[in-house]
Amino acid sequence: YNNFPVTRIEEYSFSFFDKFESIFIPNTIIYIDEKAFSSCDGFSNIIVDENNEYYKSLDGNLYSKDGKKLIRYAPGKKEEEFKTPDEVTDISVRAFSYSNNLKRCYISSNVTNIDNQAFSDCKNLVSIIVDKDNQTYLSLNNCLYSKDKKRFIKYPEGMGGNFVIEEGVEVIEDYAFEDSLKLTNVTIPNTVTTIGNYAFSNCNYIEKLELPSSIISIGERAFEACSKTPVLIIPSSVEKIGKMAFRDCYFLEKVIFEKNSKLLNVPSKIFYFCENLEEVIFEENSNLISIDGGAF
Questions:
Q1: CA pseudo-torsion sign 11, 243, 114, 20
Q2: Model-level pTM?
Q3: Confidence band of 294 (pLDDT split at 50, 70, 90)
Q4: CA distances to 9, 109, 123, 162 from 81, in Å
């Protein structure tokens, strides 16, 4: 570029580029941001110069030079299944995003880190299958859990209908159900204490949202544009709610904060653009201290 070699590919450099089939990465590249190819679904082949000291390609996908990190699966591939190579230990953020043909992903026993957004925007993914010998992750009912079953990590977006989270789960991770447009109902067990950021964002077709009395923390935008339920009950156990947690819940008409609520603060824009919200009730003995501007 301008007679200087390109050495870096920065964040979102190729976002929404869908007119090319292959990408060639020369040996001058020393850094590729993990989100460089985010929101890009057209290419089916990544080719890395064999003399590049930092990256390599295998079967058209992008890896770190030592093969331990899967950085980007070429989203335009026609295959419906993919298995991570045995040397892979780390799967990067949005590694599989916009892989519209991918239906099943097999995780090898050596993988120890999967970013919470690794499978974001995989609209037809119906199964994440983890090798039984993997010591970090577990698959149950085609979904991704931590090995100890205390963290629910990912619900494949191509699944649908009713879903029951396993008893014993304590944390629903960031982005766990994000954009699951085919999900119609979810049962959250009474062991869950934390619901992460964007956990149920854009789950537009959940018929009824029921929060168990075990929940302590609800993350930012956790239920943004989620659920058709007209009445929401916030359990008294909830101590913290993130900004815009229930933003754009169009069908929401009434919110009840249960008596003896431990919540101290209602953050800004928590019910932003809830156009049909008419009534918010704080039952007796609430510990509420403050309501931020624009909360409703």
A1: negative
A2: 0.94
A3: confident
A4: 28, 17, 14, 24
